[in-house]
Amino acid sequence: MASNSKKKRLGSQYRVLFYLGEGTFGTVVLASHLKTEALVAVKMVEISKETLKVIQAEREILATLKHPNIIRLFQVLITSSHVNFVLEYASGGNLFDLIQEHGPLQEEEAKHIFGQLVASLKYCHNLYIAHRDIKPQNVLLDEERNVKLTDFGLAIKCSPGRLLSRKCGTRRFWAPEKLDIRGSRNITPS
Fold first, then answer.
1. Is 35 marked as binding a ligand?
2. Which domains are delineated in the chain?
3. What is the pLDDT of residues 53-97, one digit of tens each?
4. What is the CB neighbour count within 10 angstroms for residue 186?
5. For this structure, is 142 an active site residue?
């Protein structure tokens, strides 16, 4: 499946199986490709004045990212009312649910998961991309519990040395320095 845009209905290529969740800007469903039966996650975002900029930014950023620990964008389907991001499906759920169901992670599993999360963030930062909404719900896991960082709806491509000051993301997961009125640190590649 290639990452391209087509003015097609979701139903012409995919069969929606069931609802997976809700995000700030859209609904996510599990779907099956009609010909191959491959499972995908589809993030459906309603087109409006408020979401147009977010849709374009997320699309550009996702198309740029190629890393084993970042969810892959396969295709973008556009209808008159929605943009549908056809994404890799991570069947292992998310980190939040894993901890809720099984309690704290064992040390080895925590090292595995957080090592992969750090690798995905380092990759983004080397491309001057700030995710801006890191939280357990956005850390998906595949069937082997490999990390798949997702939800780049608030991500931004930065200029080297640019100071980020806009407060966004999920407040209870903000870094302590984000609560400081002086703004956040520069993002520089390592």
1. no
2. 5-88 (3.30.200.20), 95-179 (1.10.510.10)
3. 889 999 999 999 999 999 999 999 998 899 999 999 999 999 999
4. 11
5. no
